[in-house]
Specification:
Blueprint: H1 5-14, H2 18-49, H3 52-57, H4 59-84, H5 88-98, H6 102-109, H7 112-149, H8 167-194, H9 209-219, H10 232-245, H11 252-292, E1 303-304, H12 305-316, E2 339-340, H13 342-352, H14 358-395, E3 403-404, H15 405-418, H16 421-426, H17 443-448, H18 460-468, H19 470-483, H20 487-496, H21 521-525, H22 531-538, H23 575-580, E4 585-586, E5 604-605, H24 615-619, H25 625-631, H26 635-638, H27 657-662, H28 693-700, H29 711-717, H30 728-739, E6 746-747, E7 750-751, H31 768-778, H32 783-795, E8 808-809, H33 811-822, H34 828-841, H35 846-876, E9 884-885, H36 886-893, H37 902-909, E10 924-925, H38 927-940, H39 945-959, H40 964-985, H41 992-1010, E11 1015-1023, E12 1033-1040, H42 1045-1048, E13 1052-1053, H43 1061-1067, E14 1071-1073, E15 1098-1104, E16 1110-1117, H44 1130-1168, E17 1176-1183, E18 1193-1200, E19 1206-1209, E20 1214-1215, H45 1225-1232, E21 1236-1240, E22 1243-1251, E23 1257-1266, H46 1273-1298, H47 1314-1335, H48 1339-1346, H49 1352-1357, H50 1362-1385, H51 1397-1401, H52 1406-1414, H53 1426-1433, H54 1438-1444, H55 1447-1467, E24 1485-1488
Length: 1498
């Protein structure tokens, strides 16, 4: 506001005429000589005051001073003018000068006189500098000639002594006295020798040596005599004196010498560091170049730059390293097109890691190696997705863009049933969630089914139970293996024994070092095993046979379930199983990396391929290319820490033809998925394919885990690899040889094409609205609507999401479903078999094809109809009010075809449910209501519906005459209204951006279309709890324009105060006061304003929700406008009504997200108390991307850790798709709106979408289950319950806020408030589900519970055993739960009253069931004996209830805990537990957690 005034004054001055311009020009011309003369005087002053030597040395600084001096003088003159006179006339020229163009200022500074002055000063300085240099050079030449004539006398060096005692005295004498005294002594001695006084001692003489020496010193006083030259002795003495002064402390020479010494040392240190850095940089470049070979490359030998940027970005984001300060930010590319070769790869990485320490660089190398392995899996997954995408296009013969969902699921079920048991161990059961939606599961089955066989993985819980028994059996198996006498006996013994199958999902989290063949090196070296090794070995036991499963720790997040091995010498009978068990038969010369199982034929199987590394592997010390040169001797101790080219790999050996003929290597033939019958497997012929030796390893990589022999079997059967018999040097030599082998550039024998469907999924996503918009653009009948439709399409920013409808799949959903079905561990051959099976089995009849085409046509027609009607509505609503008057619409429609269709249109109105009448007795239609009304009218008219619609739209479009000014105004206003909604969608659940954009839209429109300066504020209704005498409700100002903040913000308006705001609230219509000074009922917030300034207009508009309820007021005034009379025009008032409407939508959008977060927090708190295996749960919301031509982004709202403590961020971080190549499961889930099961860095994730009512994903829940392959079935079912209840609660919240459904208040606590209701909505929905399930139970179900009784006397007589103890525990569980339920409805009962079970049975009747189904735990006046209820149920865990397996007890257990939670929350309704969980303005984050006491235990 304040900045606009000085910008308007020059414009007004220029409009006054030529006289003002001439006066300004004269002022400028008069001012310039003053500036120039001032600069001349300043420059001369600089020249006279400066010393000649300083001028020569500092000529550059003088030039700078001369350049800056005119500017300084000009500024000073302007300041003086402003200070001396405050007249407006003197200020105008200064403003004109200030607004001059920069080029004009530069031209004024570059004058000829200034250029000549600078040239003369520069020439003079150069001449003076040259004289000084010549003088110094001449002096040096004279000294050099003197040294040649008089040689140096080194005898004077004896004076140099740095002893501290006489150091200062010696330095003084050498400097002041000795240079004159020593030559004097020399002259005196020469005279003595010349007169031979030493020889004739007794002869008296007149020569006095003392007088002679004194005369010499007086004649040669250095202060008064000119230097006639130095002797060689004096020259050396002078040098000695200079050297000795350095050692005298606290002198200038000493300080200067120290400074020079420090500078010298620092220079040497810098040079040394520079050399070391250069060597380190070269070593790092070599390591990076070697590491580049570990990546899989495109056909040109390059790798996408975005992949490497993602690797660096992920490494820099590691909070443990804290690399934000020492690394450059990574600007990630937007596409896969930029590629890097080896040199460019090295340069890119080196550029970002220049300041890394050696330890950090080693971690980076390990991270690069790990990501290289991850990238292989990404390419493999992408190959699978491309395969499924091509399958979709093949099955979609009608090119309608979708396939039938039920037919797809039926084919998956058939494929699953016909697969072998080995293959079913990897595939996921398509009859279970997430393939089947929650709504498709019956309530009794969903809540009461406890059959472990219905897990998504077959026999998951049973295998896990068997694994728990292995530690006790391990010692026995070791003893048996030691007592075995021959390998044949051992082999026969363990062929007959039944070993449990190795579960792929079991991960104990133990981390021990393993050797290259997957066997723990500690186990090889030490006779006794540690507990960590036992936990590892528990997971590697496979079923009977020589060919056993893999060790899960080799690949903790890509395990596969293996079946019993096939006896050697026989062929595999199921070709689907062949794809999982491809192997190469090696000769007896086995090497490290292979595990030999000696069978009847003496053959061995070789473990091949690479495994993806888990997060635990990343933390281990993994070898890199740079480390191999220095640490190869310790490779055998470090184990298979893979991730570099130093990974131990076995050299290829040629397979003899005889072994190839009898081997197991083959490929899946077409239609080879054959079911396994109960009695025997049917033999299926397959095409035998020979594998060349160089490709054999690549093709065998995905299947080696099925053939790997676990450490337990090696110990039990006595099987050992030939490497065990090698010496340690031999083992190291083998490792050295294998470390030089490069990784294969093929994945299961297939080369990478260089493209990734994962990064280019937008090309497969079909955007029907864009296609229909293009068709409208091509139709000239709707030319007036083209620009509006383009704006509508540009405002649609959240693109790329597919809506789930439960009937059909589009391409992305189909691909994601099949990828979820086959899993990430399955080889590509399984996907190929599934593709072949689908191509044969997916057959549509002619009627189905026609039905699909008709459905696609109707869908396209519906989208086109919505675009046309929405554009027509915006053209009609030129003021952006957001509604149209029904009367005006009817008047125009009745003129269609000259009124011939008037009667048909009146019939259509009988089927329309119009909204409520507004206070002005008018019916207003919103955009959606207008579309429905026109569609009903068209349906009553004669003719083809599509043609009639186009005709009606064309008629209405041509009947609406809008000027060009109105069209431009409408376009600008629609843009401002869109920015308000956009601010809500990108705010991260915050209202501050919404307030900002709302006031920005109001002020911009007032300036552009009303020529006003306005003030505005928003006040919201609140319940008046402190002063109820002043009214039940109050209006609190929550936001206002910046200038009014000190007077308006956070102020409260009561009903007994002046003002028209409460009138607006009561009547529900806007009130416009043209002149507030004459109204008498206006409350002015700024009491310091004079009454004479109370002039302007005031407008108050109601803020309404979807149910037309008033929740606040938007107030706008023109009190700050300088014009005394400035009323609001009708088109302005209508626009302000549109702003209020859009603000209401944005306000409730933000609050809906707040409520959803509150529901999720409640649900997570419930789940964490009964599911201990979940590591973390992250919640994301979908937001539009601010960048153009891009899809959405994800905002991480909160994270729940191990302790159930939820951290909610104030500024939630944003996740982009381009930064998630290695963690794309979040975007896969959002794209398809389907559940995604993914494994990244050894951690498994269950990613679930939170869907809007339209089926699109509004958010994502990322459930991290850690190292486990999957949750137990009990935990898996509890997770499903939590997700279903959250989705139902979210759907209810969204439907209520949008007005689609009416609010349903079931519990009394829901009437307290919206925020409190969101806090208990999760429990309310779950309570209703449980009550419905209990209502479906029969009387026999409750009678069976009453039979749980036992005789204490009989129990004392019988000896206790495990079965009787379990029975006793079950009886106590059933009785305690039933007693707790009885106490809910009979609070006066005591524990002594319920000791008799026969008496308790009397309370279990039909009336009890009805009370349970109608019970409201939050009802007023409810009396409940909480202590007694908790006493009965607190000692019983969730596991006990699950093991009992009774559906009625399951329902009652959850019902009791939900009721307890609601009762406790009702008592704490004013505490922070129910308050909004979002952080305040001053917090960076906030923690939220549900009370543990109200939830079931683990």
């Amino acid at each position: 506001m304040s900045e606009s005034a000085p910008q308007e004054e020059p414009k007004r001055a220029q409009e006054n005429g030529k006289e003002d311009k001439e006066r300004n020009q004269k002022g400028n011309e008069a001012e310039e000589p003053i500036q120039y003369s001032q600069s001349m005087s300043d420059s001369s002053a600089v020249g006279t005051c400066s010393n000649v030597t300083e001028a020569a040395a500092n000529k550059k600084s003088q030039d700078l001073n001369l350049e800056n001096q005119p500017k300084l003088s000009t500024c000073s003159e302007k300041e003086s003018k402003t200070r001396v006179s405050k007249n407006v006339v003197f200020r105008k020229p200064a403003k004109v000068i200030f607004n001059l163009d920069q080029a004009a200022q530069d031209s004024n500074l570059e004058q000829p006189w200034r250029k000549n002055l600078l040239e003369r000063v520069q020439a003079r300085a150069q001449a003076m500098h040259q004289k000084i240099l010549d003088k110094e050079n001449l002096k040096k030449e004279v000294e050099k000639k003197a040294e040649e004539k008089l040689p140096r006398d080194n005898l004077a060096k004896e004076w140099f002594n740095t002893e501290n005692m006489a150091l200062s005295t010696r330095a003084y004498l050498l400097d002041k006295l000795l240079p004159t005294l020593v030559p004097g002594m020399e002259r005196m001695l020469m005279q003595v020798e010349k007169k031979k006084l030493l020889a004739d001692v007794d002869i008296p003489t007149k020569f006095d040596p003392i007088n002679h020496l004194g005369e010499y010193l007086m004649r040669n006083n250095p202060k008064y005599t000119k230097d006639s030259g130095l002797s060689g002795y004096q020259r050396v003495m002078r040098d000695i004196s200079e050297d000795l002064k350095i050692y005298v402390p606290n002198t200038t020479y000493n300080r200067v010498s120290k400074i020079k010494e420090d500078i010298k040392q620092k220079r040497e240190q810098k040079e040394y560091i520079k050399d070391v850095k250069a060597k380190v940089a070269n070593a790092r470049k070599q390591a990076l170049q070697e590491q580049f070979n570990e990546w899989i490359l495109d056909p040109k030998g390059m790798i996408p730059m975005v992949v490497i940027q993602n690797v660096l970005h992920e490494f820099f984001q590691n909070p443990d390293l804290q690399l934000e300060t020492c690394c450059l930010p990574v600007d990630i590319a937007d596409s896969m097109k930029p590629r890097l070769n080896k040199t460019e790869f090295t340069q890119l990485v080196s550029l970002h890691i220049a300041g890394f320490k050696s330890e950090t660089f080693e971690k980076l190398l390990k991270h690069l190696c790990h990501c290289a392995d991850e990238f292989r899996e990404i390419i493999k997954t992408d190959m699978r997705r491309q395969m499924f995408a091509e399958l979709f296009l093949h099955c979609d013969r009608g090119k309608v863009g979708f396939l039938d969902r039920q037919r797809t699921l039926a084919l998956l079920e058939t494929f699953y049933d016909q697969s072998s048991k080995v293959l079913r161990g990897i595939l996921r059961n398509p009859r279970q969630w997430p393939f089947v939606e929650f709504e498709e599961i019956d309530l009794p089955e969903f809540w009461g089914d406890m059959d472990n066989q219905k897990h998504i993985y077959e026999d998951f819980d049973n295998v896990l139970l068997e694994m728990d028994t292995l530690p006790s059996e391990k010692h026995v198996s070791k003893t048996q293996s030691k007592l075995s006498t021959s390998p044949e006996d051992q082999h026969e013994h363990y062929r007959e024994s039944s070993l449990p199958q190795s579960p792929p999902e079991q991960q104990r989290g133990a981390t021990v070092e393993q050797g290259p063949n997957g066997i723990s090196t500690r186990e090889q070296e030490q006779p006794e095993e540690s507990t960590g090794e036992q936990e590892l070995n528990e997971e590697s036991i496979s079923k009977k046979g020589n060919y056993t499963g893999s060790t899960p720790e080799q690949r903790p997040h890509r395990e596969s379930i293996t079946e019993q091995g096939v006896p050697q010498g026989t062929h595999i009978k199921s070709t689907a199983e062949q794809g999982l068990s491809k192997e190469s038969i090696t000769t007896e010369g086995q090497h490290e990396g292979s595990t030999t199982g000696q069978g009847s034929h003496g053959k061995s199987t070789e473990e091949q391929g690479s495994r993806r590394e888990s997060k635990s592997d990343l933390e281990k010390p993994r070898e890199t290319m740079a480390e191999q040169k220095a640490h190869r001797e310790s490779q055998s101790d470090q184990g298979p820490h893979r991730g570099s080219t130093a990974e131990p790999q076995s050299p290829r050996e040629t397979i003899p033809e005889e072994q190839q003929d009898t081997g197991f290597t083959s490929q899946l033939s077409k239609g080879s998925i054959v079911g396994e019958s109960k009695t025997s497997r049917e033999s299926v012929s397959f095409e035998h394919t020979e594998i060349p030796p160089q490709e054999e390893r690549t093709q065998g990589q995905p299947y080696e885990e099925l053939l790997f022999i676990s450490p337990e079997l090696q110990e039990k059967t006595g099987v050992s690899s030939p490497e065990d018999h090698l010496s340690e040097p031999a083992k190291k030599e083998v490792q050295k040889d294998k470390s030089c082998e490069p990784k294969s550039q093929k994945i299961e024998g297939k080369s990478w094409t260089g493209e990734l469907l994962t990064c280019n999924n937008m090309q497969y996503a079909k955007h029907e609205d864009e296609e229909q918009a293009n068709l409208i653009y091509a139709n000239s009948r709707f030319a007036d609507l083209h620009s509006i439709i383009r704006n509508i399409q540009s405002y649609k920013e959240t693109k790329g999401r597919s809506a789930f409808n439960g009937v059909s799949f589009n391409l992305l959903q189909f691909v994601q479903l099949l990828e979820t079905f086959v899993g990430e561990d399955s080889p590509l051959s399984v996907s190929e078999a599934l593709t072949s099976f689908f191509k044969k089995g997916f057959v549509e009849t002619k009627e189905e094809k026609m039905s699909s085409l008709e459905k696609a046509r109707q869908n396209a027609s519906q989208i086109q109809r919505e675009l046309l009607l929405k554009a027509l509505f915006q053209k009609w609503d030129s003021d952006g009010s957001g509604f149209l008057d029904l009367k005006e619409i009817d008047e125009l429609l009745y003129t269609y075809k000259e009124g011939m269709e008037k009667e048909s249109m009146k019939k259509a109105k009988l089927h329309v449910q119009f909204p409520k009448l507004h206070p002005g007795h008018e019916v207003r239609l919103s955009s959606k209501q207008f579309q429905k009304y026109i569609e009903l009218v068209v349906s009553e008219l004669r003719g083809n519906e599509e043609e009639v619609l186009e005709s009606v739209v064309e008629f209405l479009m041509n009947s609406l005459e809008r000027s060009h000014v109105e069209s431009l105004r409408n376009c600008a206003r629609q843009k401002w209204l869109h920015q308000i909604q956009h601010a809500a969608e990108t705010s991260g659940v915050s209202l501050e951006p919404v307030y900002t954009e709302t006031f920005k839209a109001l002020t911009q429109d007032a300036e552009a279309h009303g020529n006003k300066k306005i003030s505005a504020h928003i006040s919201l209704l609140e319940e008046n709890l402190l002063l109820p005498d002043r009214g039940n409700v109050l209006l609190r100002n929550v936001a206002c324009t910046l200038d009014d903040a000190p007077f308006v913000l956070k102020r409260v308006l009561y009903r007994d105060m002046k003002g028209i705001s409460f009138t607006v609230v009561d009547e529900g219509k806007p009130i416009h006061v043209p002149q507030v000074q004459h109204h008498g009922n206006i409350y002015f917030w700024n009491h310091s304003r004079k009454k004479s300034d109370h002039s302007g207009s005031f407008l108050a508009l109601p803020l309404q929700d979807a149910y037309m309820r008033i929740f606040g007021v938007l107030a706008i005034d023109t009190l700050r406008d300088p014009q005394k009379i400035n009323i609001f025009l009708p088109h302005e008032i209508r626009f302000y009504q549109g702003v209020a409407n859009v603000f209401s939508t944005a306000y409730h959008y933000v609050h809906s997200r707040e409520h959803i977060l509150h529901i999720v927090i409640t649900g997570i708190g419930w789940l964490y108390n009964i599911t201990p295996s979940i590591t973390a749960i992250s919640t994301y919301f979908v937001e539009p991307n601010s960048e153009k031509d891009s899809d959405y982004v994800l905002r991480n709202m909160m994270v729940t850790g191990l302790q159930g403590l939820t951290e909610i961020h104030k500024n939630p971080p944003v996740v982009f798709r381009k930064t998630c190549i290695f963690r794309d499961f979040l975007f896969k889930c959002t794209d398809s709106s389907e559940v995604v099961l993914a494994s990244v860095c050894g951690e498994n994730h269950i990613v679930v979408p939170l869907r809007e009512r339209t089926g699109e994903a509004l958010g994502v829940l990322d459930v991290n289950i850690g190292k486990r392959k999957m949750l137990l079935y009990r935990e898996f079912k509890d997770l499903q319950k939590m997700l279903k209840v959250i989705q139902l609660a979210c759907s209810e919240i969204l439907g209520e806020l949008s007005g689609e459904i009416k609010k349903n208040y079931i519990l009394e606590i829901e009437n307290v408030g919206e925020v409190q209701r969101a806090g208990i909505l999760f429990f309310r929905v779950m309570l209703r589900e449980l009550q419905e399930c209990l209502g479906l139970l029969t009387s026999s179900d409750f009678v069976s519970l009453l039979l749980y009784d036992y005789d204490p006397l009989a129990e004392d007589e019988a000896p206790p055993d495990s079965q009787s103890q379990d029975l006793k525990a079950n009886i106590k569980l059933v009785q305690d739960i039933l007693k707790a339920i009885i106490v809910f409805f009979h609070p006066k009962l005591q524990s002594s009253d319920l000791e008799s079970w026969d008496r308790c049975k009397l309370y279990v009747n039909q009336q009890l069931v009805e009370n349970i189904c109608d019970f409201d735990p939050t009802a007023m006046g409810l009396e409940v004996n909480l202590e007694l209820i908790v006493e009965y149920i607190e000692d019983h865990s969730r596991i006990e209830v699950w093991k009992l397996g009774n559906a009625a007890i399951e329902y009652l257990y959850h019902w009791a805990h939900i009721c307890l939670a609601l009762i406790k929350l009702n008592k704490k309704i004013s505490s922070a537990i129910i308050s909004p969980p979002l952080p305040s303005k001053t917090d960076s984050y906030v923690y939220a957690k549900m009370p543990e006491g109200s939830l079931p235990g683990k």
